[in-house]
């Protein structure tokens, strides 16, 4: 893994999300707690809704367009046969780091 | 031949080290113990019970003079070590040198003093040693103290002084207490019980300056301008390893003195233990690992194999009556699951954090009896698969009981008001039930409870079930969502009755089963809190649907629409030019005239929003709240200004209403209209509030609809003056704000409570004035342009990072 420093954790509001543009598409960083961040695709598989704009609750997010709910641990949609891709992310000294290998199309191929 | 061992610092870890050495091999070392404090080893952890008067200093001394004499320890107390000559292996003290074969650094930690202006005034202290404790013990009845820091140490200091009768205020930078050891819910319970001890807590408060008089502290000034007068100011914001001596001596240091698993520093003859060390990147503040380090250091000194391993830790607050426990990791890590248990009646909160079928963290408040059992599961990594269902009930429980959904009602005191309309308290209803009222109708007949607006019906029924048990068959009511067992009406009523003023308070007191609600209940609770407690509760954007969070309407492709306000539907050439310019500048694909008499710019990119708002703001245009559960538009006709038939200034009234109501949050959207004559060109009779002007005055109708349902307004009242029409409208909107279920439009709410009930309230002069005052109070906060605020921080709307650019470089 090669960790890329993205931003300070406080750039993401608690129980909120922000978007990072990558070569594999837009990835949303969801801050579910003071010291907890998940990374997953920003795009809802249903109608393409921007998940970072959804309401973050517990370790889940609800799509703002049609209320599909995703578990951020697995990316699995609750009660639907669909999932979003999740990405390795970690917090170090107040900074959010994303795995560069996972979000780079060339190395993923 | 005995080796010469010198120990610098007589703290808790070095006390344990000496004990282990003399127990294992009393003849191995000649020990010399330096301590800058003029005394030997005592239990620093127990300073808090000394402060509160539960223990004396003598009781917390761990090693007395007799111990040192018996074991031939040479004590150099009250003497500072000035430097270490590592080449000659000599420690230089103020009163002379001491040679060593082995040296142990136990220099501990120093309290962090925030360099606020005035931090060097007399009366500003840390909480670290016996001297500090004695200063605090002098603070009794009538003395005022401010403690900066709502962590473990700060709260113990505050509680200790409060127990002695001092007036204590704790100032804490974060939003909840002990944020490193507790989650929000436990922090809320802790705050509540400390407030019960008379301690004032100021959270999210930033200290700006310490004010003094004649060189002595006088008050703490916060950056919001509040002055907190005090006779003593205690800074308890944390500690950092005391590495000065180690660094001067040339040892490898980082945050602390670097040690390996054997507690040996970069010099093979020098070991280090306690709060001054850094081991594998970690520094230590709790006692358990320090004792472990002391044991490992003793084994290393004696030439035995031993290695220090970091373990998870548990925390307990030593404040009588505040029963809390936390251990392990409950704030970090992916792939975790929570089990939450709340018992509002007993003020109990428990949360277990599970990862890979193992318990990794626990936070408990109110009932911590099982703490050490849970801690054991964490430490041992016991698989919990088999007992998962009942795990949270602790080791004694292996049956399976249902959480009692009635506990919130059962916990209310008997003087708690259940029915707000008729002022009926819980005790009165219980008496009626005891006297033979066994169904809702009978309770209503005897007490009038739930006989008016009916929103407390659910609570009355629950109370009947609590009192009558199985004799009462509860009608099934729809709870808000899967997170709780209460209906919207119950939640609203309980937020008022129990004076719940924060989300954690609602989750805890009303027995929520999730950590922080879901997309269904959280927006509702957020609205109820801000509607009932406008000054105490701040609107939480993260509990709002995207449109209200971003102040624009999301479209199916993820772009947004922007609708500036046109007061009463009136605009100017300049405003139209600004809108046209913005449409050009931001490549707006669709410009549409709305049914609410204004202009919609559709297809604006999310990241452009703050900029288009700034441009529109410059032309005097503000948010039209086309996205909010709040006032949308006031549609008007031109009235007496131009129309041949107009009877009153309908446009002017519309503008006045819009200016009074804009910015307010309501349970659902609210649309108004004012027509200048009964020809009703503004279509006022299908609005939430529609006013039709006539020669004799104003006909105010309410509860119209022209959406999924189409409904004509019902006449609330006819009034003679414009001022009255405005007053009645505001009172109606406020009554709706105070009572309706979230996402019920006024017509749905009216169908539940009845127009008569609403009219009685609004026609009561006192009640009408109360409603208007309450609305004005709320508007003192919310009557402002959110666009102006958000335009000032465009970064929040931009991408957090763009890795595609970096890849291209």
TrEMBL record, chain A:
Query: Gene3D superfamilies in the record, alphabetically?
Result: Rieske [2Fe-2S] iron-sulphur domain
Q: Which UniProt keywords apply?
A: 2Fe-2S, Iron, Iron-sulfur, Metal-binding, Nitrate assimilation, Oxidoreductase
Question: Pfam families from the xrefs?
Answer: Rieske
Keyword set includes Repeat: no
Q: Where is the Rieske domain?
A: 3-98
Cross-referenced InterPro entries: Rieske-like_NirD, Rieske_2Fe-2S, Rieske_2Fe-2S_sf
Q: Which PANTHER family match?
A: 3-PHENYLPROPIONATE_CINNAMIC ACID DIOXYGENASE FERREDOXIN SUBUNIT, FERREDOXIN-RELATED
> What is the protein name stated in its UniProt record?
Nitrite reductase small subunit NirD
- Organism classification: Bacteria, Pseudomonadati, Pseudomonadota, Alphaproteobacteria, Rhodobacterales
From TrEMBL, chain B:
Q: Give the gene name.
A: nirB
- Which positions fall inside the Nitrite/sulphite reductase 4Fe-4S domain? 629-764
Which PANTHER family does the protein's record reference? NITRITE REDUCTASE (NADH) LARGE SUBUNIT
The record, for InterPro entries, names:
BFD-like_2Fe2S-bd_dom, BFD-like_2Fe2S-bd_dom_sf, FAD/NAD-bd_sf, FAD/NAD-binding_dom, FAD/NAD-linked_Rdtase_dimer_sf, NasD-like, NiRdtase/SiRdtase_haem-b_fer, Nit/Sulf_reduc_fer-like_dom_sf
Q: Which organism is it from?
A: Ruegeria aquimaris
Q: What is this protein called?
A: Nitrite reductase large subunit NirB
All copies of domain NADH-rubredoxin oxidoreductase C-terminal, residue ranges: 314-381
Classification via Gene3D superfamilies: 3.30.390.30, BFD-like [2Fe-2S]-binding domain (1.10.10.1100), FAD/NAD(P)-binding domain (3.50.50.60), Sulfite Reductase Hemoprotein, domain 1 (3.30.413.10)
Record keywords: 2Fe-2S, 4Fe-4S, FAD, Flavoprotein, Heme, Iron, Iron-sulfur, Metal-binding, Nitrate assimilation, Oxidoreductase
* Cofactor dependence: [4Fe-4S] cluster; siroheme; [2Fe-2S] cluster; FAD
Q: From what superkingdom does this record's organism come?
A: Bacteria
Sequence ranges assigned to domain BFD-like [2Fe-2S]-binding in this UniProt record: 418-465, 480-529
